[in-house]
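step 3/5: co-fold with histidyl-adenosine monophosphate
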Amino acid sequence: MSIPKKIGSQFIQSPKGMRDILPQEQMWWDKFRRELDFISDYYNFIRIDTSLLERAEVFEKSLGETTDIVEKQMFVFKSRSGDRLALRPEGTASIVRAYAQHGLSHLGQPLKLFYSGPMFRREQPQMGRFRQFYQAGFEIMGGEDDAIYDAQVILVLFRLLERLKIKNVTLHVNSIGCRVCRPNYRKRLVDYYRPLVPKLCKDCRRRVKENPLRLLDCKNLVCQEYKQTAPIIVDSLCSSCNKHLKRLLEFLEELRLPYQLDHYLVRGLDYYNKTVFEFFTEATGEAGQKFDFAIGSGGRYDYLLEMFGVRQGQASGVGGALGVDRVIEVMKATKVNLGLRHKSKVFFVNIGEVAKKKSFGLIERLRDAGIMVVESLGKDSLGAQLRSANKENADYALIFGQKEAFEESMIVRDLKNGVQETVPLKNLINEVKRRMKQ
Ligand code: HAM
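step 4/5: write tokens
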């Protein structure tokens, strides 16, 4: 095998749409993780982590065979033992699979779970759209199918967006009915669209037969025109779905959460019943145009639990997830204050082989005493190490050379004013702590 002379950018790059989150971006992600942990703790959600690889049928059966995700976007492959596996395109179906598989219905019900992690969809990468992207979500499952849980999921997502300082958030809500009333609506919709078929886009012509609700989701301008006069689902809801929607809206009003009832919101996944919702914020595209950026969504999915064997009466689930990459894009664009406080720290400078050997142990003693130490032990020159100290924004440099090693002392230099003093090693920890308090 020949070894390439240079493994650099022109040789191997990450696959299209996959994400590297670089060190300089981590402060945004840290902020997201901190707020997610705070909110989930505050509202009593416990973390669940499911596998990134699932049997493909977990998604095929639940998201729906004719959805874009299953038809076009899943990364599916055959393992050596012949299993068809998929990289998870979303979290909800995996969590329901885990809930049923591990008998989590035996834990206190309803079970309030949260998660965050990478998802994979083979989409055309563009602003805010990746093939590997991150979601953070909340799911409430088991127990009664009470609309108060739908409202609670929405509330938690709202509060998280609030803590992340995302402005101009709008919430769209709709109901897509249940297996009793949805067939009537579907029929009304097909009756309306049938004479229009020749004028519809290619995808919608197929949707009329396979998945008529998705006709309302089409982005094609001609199809959007026809949508304006299409029948709306609220007129077809059965009394149970009607009541559920009404109660949800009452809870949202009680919580003073602003919402828009969006009759055409149907969502791209088949597992929903009753409530569906989506969060948007205003964003600015590369050409300066303003548009509604979908930053999160969710809904109720009682049949999904049934599909995985959860018995009726307990088969109730509702949840929602934020698109973390998108939320972070908005935070960056609006320059959200990350509230980072300066952490006092010292930079350890060592000069010469004798000092370097002793430095290792000394640094650990400082750290054990709770002092934050940065260093670049591989560097030898004083100038290079002081430059690193400046980059690190350290308060003091502790300079340890041959002479200091011999005399058991340390030079402590204040990096703001350059004033320095030699301190005996035995007093070093106390001296550093005293100065850092000032
Ligand atoms: P979803 O609408 O497919 O729902 O995705 C949720 C959010 O993930 C979207 O609103 C968007 O912000 C983000 N997202 C989706 N695709 C991409 C992508 N290719 N690149 C970047 N961000 C993306 C779900 O996945 C449901 N599991 C939500 C849910 C939870 N329903 C109930 N519980």
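step 5/5: annotate
The chain has 15 helices and 16 strands.
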